Amino acid sequence: MIRNLSTILIINKSYNLNPKINITVLGVSCFNGMAGSTRVKNLLLPLINKNCIIANNLIYKKDAISLSEKKGKLNKISYCIIEFRKSNPFSIFSFFFQGIIFIKKNKMRFEKNILYHYDQPDIRSIFFILYARIIGYKIILDIIEDNRYYTNFTRPLSRIKIKSSIFFTKYINLYIDCVLTISEHLYNHMCKISKGRLPVFLIPITVDFSKFESKPYKISKEFKIFYGGSFAEKDGLEYLLKAFENISVLFENTVLILTGKGAIENMKRYGDLISESSAKARINLMGYLTTDEYYNQLNSCDIFCMTRVNSKFANAGFPFKLGEYLAAGKAVIATKVGDVSKYIQDRKNALLINPSSVEEIVNALTYILENPEQINLLGTEAKMTARNHFDSDKVGLQLLNIFKSL
Fold first, then answer.
1. What homologous superfamily is domain 210-389 in, according to CATH?
2. Which whole number is the average pLDDT over 127-147?
3. In sequence order, which residues have a C-beta less than 8 Å from that of residue 90 and are 6 or more positions away?
């Protein structure tokens, strides 16, 4: 769903032959990474491959997964990795200097230059954003969470980052040209802040369908239950682990696959829960996987669980993983949080359950395992839902229209 599209230009197919839009991405890696990386890749790569845009990526060191060189070019995207080390306070100077040089160097004369910032501006990024605006970039924010509701502060720097993002977001009318949001809640929130002075759009989660198998599903002898994503408080993994303990007793042909990463404290917590679980022999905590490893694992599984809790933070965003689960064309179990009910109809394209309920997760898994033909029936509708709403090629072209309208 996109708002205000009546004000946006229609795509000119001849435009593909001569790129005129130069995008510099800040705040997330356009390469291997978690949901943020996948969101930006899915939105921009179709446009890059069609020669509609040119893209560059300024990457914080902590997000530079699998990149061995500090500078380079990959998948037609030029990148630079910058780092601030707490052990060396003076590294702050090279951090900002290298970032500013990269932004300046990649600005194209006589072309439209856009700084695409993933998430809310914070103490790290605000100087880059202001500098880019001063030298002529248009600034776009892609808002995926409501940091006002963030409570899981594990480190002092994390608190500074979140608190500063809330402060800088209040004044976006002064330095931002456009805002993208991922949920209805965030759309309404940003409209309230912008007071009609900025264009605000709702850009949904996206799915790259080239990553998913199209072969018919065959009922498995061993059923793989899958969760992939962050290991955060909002994700409700403790309820899934407890539910699987019950399921493993009722159905011996089940395994639970967990992939992704989270804060050190959270990973330790879930590691302890698994080691204490009566079903630990059938729980496979795989941790972070590369892009290819992740999709290979996802395509091999039978049942997907999105178990977000009913917190303000969880309800404000939208689970990126849900789009990929639906696109896999298997059975999906999802909790009723945020905008999920707008896309999911219970027992039509997925099973919809109340959040934070071990009993409802157990009942949903039991229904599927006792009726395995539902994996194919639900999966067919699930994949159609993902194609209709989250296809990265379609959503990417809508984003191109927004770029062209600035």
1. Glycogen Phosphorylase B; (3.40.50.2000)
2. 97
3. none
The pTM assigned to this predicted structure is 0.90
Distance separating alpha carbons of residues 324 and 304, to the nearest angstrom? 10
Rounded distance between C-alpha atoms, residue 289 and residue 33, angstroms: 9
Helix axes of 237-250 and 358-370: crossing angle, nearest 10 degrees: 40
Among 85-89, 296-300, 396-400, which stretch is predicted with the lowest mean pLDDT? 85-89
Q: Containing H/E element for 276? A: none
Regarding the domain with residue range 5-206+391-405, which homologous superfamily does it belong to in the CATH classification?
Glycogen Phosphorylase B; (3.40.50.2000)
Position 7 pLDDT exceeds 90 = no
Q: Is residue 200's pLDDT more than 90?
A: yes
Note whether 5-206+391-405 and 210-389 share their fold.
Answer: yes
For residue 391, what are the β-bridge partners?
Answer: 207
Question: Which burial class, exposed, middle or buried, applies to 137 when counting CB atoms under 10 A from its CB (0-12, 13-18, 19+)?
Answer: buried
- Other beta carbons within 10 angstroms of residue 354's beta carbon come to 12
What are the DSSP calls for 212-228, one per residue? S--SPP---SSEEEEEE
Backbone angles phi, psi at 272, to 5 degrees: -65, -40
As to burial, measured by CB atoms within 10 angstroms (0-12 exposed, 13-18 middle, 19+ buried), residue 65 is: middle
Domain range annotation of the chain: 5-206+391-405, 210-389
Q: Measured between alpha carbons, how far apart are the two ends of the chain, in Å?
A: 19
- Report the C-alpha gap between 322 and 299 in whole angstroms: 14
Helix axes 320-327, 35-49, angle to 10 degrees: 60
Coil, strand, or helix at residue 379? Answer: helix
Question: Among residues of the chain, what percentage have pLDDT more than 70?
Answer: 95
**pLDDT per residue as tens digits for the range 59-101:** 999 899 888 899 999 989 999 999 988 888 888 999 999 999 9
Please write down the long-range contacts of 159-165, taking CB distance under 8 Å and 24 or more positions apart: 160/123, 161/122, 161/123, 161/124, 162/122, 164/122, 164/123, 164/126, 165/119, 165/120, 165/121, 165/122
Q: What is the mean pLDDT of residues 207-215?
A: 91
Q: Binning pLDDT at 50, 70 and 90, where does residue 5 land?
A: very low
Banded model confidence at residue 220, pLDDT cuts 50, 70, 90 = confident
- Which residue is listed with tokens 């593909």? 16
